[in-house]
Amino acid sequence: MKILKYLSIPIFALLFSACSERDDAVYDGDNYVSFGATSSEATVVKGSTSKEVAIVYTTLSEAKQNTEVKIAVDAANSTAVEGVDFKILNKTDNLAEGQKVGSFKVQLLESGAKETQKVITFKLSSSVPNATFNQTHTLKYSLECPFNMSGFTGTYKVVTDTWEDYSPGDLITVQPGPAANQFKILSTNNPYISNPTTSYMLVTVQNNGSITVASNQPFLYDAPTGSMSLSGTGTVNFCTGGINISALTFSGPAGTASGQKFVLEKN
C-alpha cells in the first residue's frame, strides 16, 4: 500500500502537465478566412439619405503578416444593384499583422431602399485560404418609415370608393390635426352631399399604422338616403402616405351600409 501511495504523486504530476500542454496549444495550420456571420439585417430610415453598415470577417488566428482581404457582390444571388441601391466603400481591407478581425463598409442608399427587403449577397477572396464555412454573407435591408403626420397632408387621388361618392382619379384634400396623431379627409369635392364645406372624416392613427375613422358630423345626402354618420377602420402606409379604409360603415335613418372601401394615394 505504501508503494502505491508514493507512486500516485508523480503520476498526478504527469497528468497535470499533459493537461496544461493541451490548454496552452496554439493553432498553427493555415489561417483560414471567413465572414463572421452568414447573414444580417438593416433598415434605412426615410429622410436619412443613407445608412452605413459593417460586414465583418475573421481569420482562424492572428495574421502572421499584413494581409489583403477583398469583398465582392454575388449579383446572381442579389436583388439590390451595386452603384444604384448601395455602394461598397472599401472593397479591399488590410488585415494588419497580429489582428484576426476586419470589416468592410457598405453604404445603403435611401433612394434604393423599399418597404420590402432587398438582398445583397457578398463573397470573400484573399491570399489567405478560404474556410469551408461562412463564405457568403447575405445582407437584407428595407426602408424604415417612422410615424410622421406631416406625411398625410396635401392632395390625394381616389383609387377605390365602393360607396361611389367619388370616381377613381378624383382629387381630395387631406389636412393634419386636430390631435398630433389625427388628420382630416375633407368633403370639399363631394358632389353628393349638401354640407361639403363643414363635414369631414376624422382619421386617428396608431403607431402600428392601424386607423379608426369617424365623421365629425353626419353627411347630408338627398332623399331617400338622408343623413349618414360614418365610422370605420383601416391602415395607413408611413412610407408612401397611402390611406386604406377597408371597412367603412354609413349609418342613418335610412339604414346601414357596411363593408365599404375607400382607398386614397398621395397625388
TrEMBL record:
Keyword Cell membrane: no
InterPro entries: CalX-like_sf
Keyword DNA damage set for record: no
UniProt KW keywords: Signal
Record's signal peptide: 1-22
Name assigned to this protein: DUF4843 domain-containing protein
Species the sequence originates in: Chryseobacterium sediminis
High-level lineage: Bacteria, Pseudomonadati, Bacteroidota, Flavobacteriia, Flavobacteriales
